[in-house]
Amino acid sequence: MRISELYIYPIKSLRPVRVTEGLLTDLGFTYDRRFMLLKVTPDGNGGPSKMENMHISEFPQMALFHTTLEMSESFAGSNKVVVTYWPPSQEDLTLTSAEGNQLDHQDKTVPSTSHASGTDRLEIQLVPDFLHLNPITVTMHKSSTTASDMGEKYNSWFSDRFGFPVVLAYLGPSTRNVLGNLTPTYPIRTSRWSEILGMSAIKSFNIPGHPLFRRLTAFVLCLLCWSSLPLDTKGLSIMASISINVVGVIVMWIGMSIFLTILMNRHKAQIGFADCAPLLVISQTSVDDASSRVAEGPKVDLTKFRANVVISGAKEAYEEDFWAELSVGEDNPGKVRLLLTGNCVRCRSLNVDFDKGKFTNKGNGNLFKRLMKDRRVDRGARFSPVFGRYAFPERGAVGWTIRVGDEVRVLKTNTERTVTDWPGLAY
To answer: Which residues are registered as beta bridge partners of 19?
Structure first.
């Protein structure tokens, strides 16, 4: 099997950016779901406004916002995400009675076609200076974090297009706790001394470049620390003095590597604005099966599944239900491992017409219903179909890059399907 497609979602629930490679962090791909939108509802009694998380399952018009990444080769601080609003035509905005039967109060908020703030293009720094921004609390699936309100410029742009007050939130250095049984275990692989000596812990702090560069960087740091020690070598021969210093630096290097590796493995997994896990993995074979269930219309747009990693070459549809651990890459076999800890239970977002920004029951719009027939295979979420697996990069994978075309091997499988027990999602 191989990776066929990779996606990054800079702003949660907006259209993704298709990429050829992705740098793995503890929170998934770099720049993935670092921003999100919240609907603001003023309190009628003069109290604080209520903020509601915006998900495409409740606000289908989010599909009308496309994103691209503009990266600078000279200065990383100028990297930005560009959001473009593609409103549907007036004809598309006309709700037919057949489709109107599916709509609820959330869906009646159709996108506005006149905008006070002008342009349909918005540029946002991928790593903004958040220290001067107002903090806000974001709670998603009963897991909370502190984010930053990006301010009036960005809030007004989105508010004008949605037709109601909206806040753009930035995650910054904050994280959310993983709840239920999705939290992976990170065992220290004692047989992989090459990984420990290779400073996998230093790599987890995202020191860039080739692994050799990271090792040399760690060695230089240890050398500087050793040279600062008040070591008296007077009276010793030159060879003895050199030997003491060399052995001391090596011992310090190994000790620091082991200590940081243990410390890193003890650290509990965290997530950002992704729902339940840093990565979502799906199989192209399963996507093809889902498409075959839709009798009319074009093939299913796999971006509806909101996946980060698409894997092609699986022999059977939905065999990924039992995948527990994957190895990615041919150059470093076993180095990049993904731990698959839970099922992705689906909602009606699969029925969104991405071009119109609304729910539909035509063509691919009945995909959710078709999957409900035989994909309710999670005993913890009996009324939702399963499609895809939540994944966490193993500690040793953090700092590595995976690419389209990389070989994928299944290292471990489960004998039974995992059971969702995330509070509020399990029922």
So the answer is: 6
pLDDT value at 276 more than 90: yes
Neighbours of 112 (CB within 10 A): 16
Question: Sheet of 401-403: strands edge to edge?
Answer: 28-29, 21-25, 401-403
> How many helices (H) and strands (E) are present in the chain, helices listed first?
9, 23
pTM higher than the cut 0.85: no
CB 278 within 8 A of CB 391: yes
In tens, the pLDDT along 289-329 reads 999 888 666 788 899 999 999 999 999 999 999 999 999 99
Tokens describing residue 414: 């489960």
Report, in angstroms and rounded to the nearest whole number, the Rg of the chain calculated over CA atoms. Answer: 24
The residue among 217, 175, 182, 225 whose CA lies nearest residue 199 is: 217
**Tens-digit pLDDT profile for residues 63-106:** 999 999 998 876 666 799 999 999 887 555 555 444 444 444 34
Indicate the pairing of strand 309-312 with strand 279-283: parallel
Cα–Cα distance, 133 to 174 (Å, whole number): 14
Query: Which amino acid does the sequence have at 394?
Result: E
- Joined tokens for residue 147: 């984010």
Q: Minimal CA–CA distance to 206: which of 264, 253, 251?
A: 264
